[in-house]
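Entry for the shared binder. Reason: the reviewer on the internal report wants the predicted structure included alongside the sequence.
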Amino acid sequence: STLPAVAEELLREIRKAFQETSHVPDDLLLGLKFIFGPSAVPALDLVDQRSVTRLRSPSGRTLYQVLGSSGKLYTCYSSCHFCTCPAFVFSVLQKSESLLCKHILAVYLSQAMGACQELAVSEEQLTNILLAEEEHEG
């Protein structure tokens, strides 16, 4: 994982608090806003709207799709902290202004809060999603 240790620890604390009390305490929400900046609140909104879906193939490969606030579906790879949205390319890769875009943060938060939708897909469907993303970028 390439997230700073403080971000990893915050996500662990959120998971623990949510498992114990089914909500995230204000101090952890403030920490989220402090570490992830302007992505924090929109990411929480995406989690509240249950916009995160984990796609899992029979071989166990997984990827996440997040329905963005604009209605567009973005593919996120939590293993390498990558999202197909323009904000990720601009704010994270080009400008280094943010650790993550709101979509990847929503993936991490929905994992911590058990709020992921689950969808079983065939190997072929997963491959087609990955190939479609590659075509859009190329």
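Summary line for the report: Residues 5-131 form one domain.
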